[in-house]
Fold these 3 entries.
Entry 1:
Amino acid sequence: MPHPELDPHFDHIATGQAFYEACGQAQNQPETLLLYANHLHDNDRWPMGDANTGVALPPAMEVLPADMLFSYELSGEQQIDKAMALLMQHDLQPPLAVKKRLRRAIQAALTGRRWPKTGENEFLRKAVRKHELFWVRKLNAD
């Protein structure tokens, strides 16, 4: 689920609250949480770099609680599957404004910057990477 300190987007906070409420009613309790970040609260460019490349840790000014980090490598096929699943969210599919198209054409010409073949939305560049990165937290038995 979303990392509450890294990704305090209100929908993601609500997801965490729903998770904990469901845990309170469930017989089987998870032992481990895998936390991820979609929207950093202070940096909309992370992760840097092209889609389908590796992902580094986000910038952090303070230590984040975690028992360890876990990174999972996605095959090219899994990256396509993830992009297609994300594209089911129709808010990731609107056409780009003329100004943004022009800016991207200039960036491509001057810096060689490329966007993923799966879509033009900036979120696809950030979300579909060679590695999935998770902060691992062990849950208390209480």
Entry 2:
Amino acid sequence: MPPDRRDETLVLPSPPGYLCPMPTLPPIVALEIGTTFTRALVGEAREDGGLVVTGVGEERSSGVRKGLIVSMDGAAESVKRALERAEEHSGVDIARVHLAASGGHIRAQVNRGIVQVLNGEREITREEMRDVATAARNISLPPERVILHSIAQHYAVDDQEGVVNPEGMEGSRLELNMLIVHAEGALLRNTMRTAQSVGVEVADVAFGGLCAALGALTPQQKAGGVLVLNLGGGTTEYLVYANQTVASAGVIAVGGDHVTNDVAIGLRIPLAQAEQLKIDHGAAEPDPTRRRQMVSLPAESGFSGQTVCLDDLHLIMHARLRELLRIVKKELERQGVIIRLGAGIVLTGGGALTRRLPELASREFNLPCVLGRPRGVSGLAVAGGPEYATLVGLLRYAQICGARSSRTGFGGWIWRLLRGQGGQTG
């Protein structure tokens, strides 16, 4: 699996502008095969470390359910069209992509590594820090699980917890908590093969929730403690920064499609009509100013025409979205991280555009809530909405990790993953 290049690049704290200046590189292409939309973003790294978006491609997804491939042919056609549009906008021939991974199979857990400090002076050196990182990555997982990310959290020296950098300190025992994000190898390979089937190479794979955080958060939000909710069509990803590190991550298999399905059943209308009604008039909670407003729907697909009260629509959507938020809240309370979210909640993904959702989330969590839009990137304004946070973050992730990938044999990991031989970090 991917070597430990990821740990050093993602651990906090990080000073503002932590992206190191680098020479202009070939264009980077980020690809997200989502439940509702398949999107591609072309970006170029500037010499000052910034990013410029030069091309965008978007296509309605086919063959994808809850973030997973259910028809490779249908999904591949969506990928092909999205990449073609990105090529037209950017003037770039796309040969390699960086892929965002999603789905309810992605999980995260904290593993603790312990080493003894055996040198005569009991001074902690980089060698002990490397050894404890290796120990922390040595997690027992079922054979088909593969590690996407291993993210260093905090060290402990003897009984002193919360050490950020133990180098040069004296102690007899060094410990490290590592957040391990892992996934089902076969499901990842299906997504990768879908992209490869249209003639592009998969250069890297990263968890979509982590990418959304990299794309939308400020250093101040990370330092204060923040929850990112990345609301997609089939899943909702979450990631928590707390105590100056990535403290928690995961995926809930509930997304915008579930809201649409509830609307279709509750109002007895076709799914396509329910989706459009949700987009045009939907809200996460009842709107007193529109309570008695009616919307006429024409007869369609064997359903008779009818008039819908917007209050009914909003109540249906409210029930499902409140349930989703409470599932996430219960999980974070179980982990004990919710009390450390001083910067509140940031909503990303297409579902973040649901009217009055920030107000509902703020009330459910008793925390401030804002929309998260891509930061630190210039170029096409069309990529400035919360639905593009994951792709912008994936561009940044590729930019951060690119130089190290070539030195650590990442291409070999991709080959092993495609062959079904993915495993743990070495």
Entry 3:
Amino acid sequence: MKFKVKKFKNLSVAELYDLLRLRSEIFVLEQKCIYLDTDGYDQDSLHILGYSKKKLVAYARIVPPGTIFKTVSIGRVVVDEKFRDKKIGHLLMERSIKETVKKYKPEIISISAQTHLQKFYNRLGFKSIGKTYLDCDIPHVKMLLKNPSP
């Protein structure tokens, strides 16, 4: 797995196309969630792109504090369906946490996690807070990682 970390302005047209396509494949087609994926946060975010050979198979974005949550957050976490159960999601999140710490040195990282992925995020140190809520008819929960280390 090879990762690229890029600001929005440094993404090539092909990289932007690939990440938007991967996000649409997962969130819109697979999860049947009709929503506006291009939500205005990409331009200020840091983008983590994971490649197997030359194919984009994993992606996440780091959103600055005060944008979606008061704290810095990691979101739009996706792994191509054909590459799941290969620890790629774990590698993607480890890299995302490392890059978040490097850029922001946060005391807390927030995520909005689908509830069926709570155990996955727990293994990375995230803890659930608050009540379950629906986002695009999918149960989610806010989770926090306190005092993350690179």
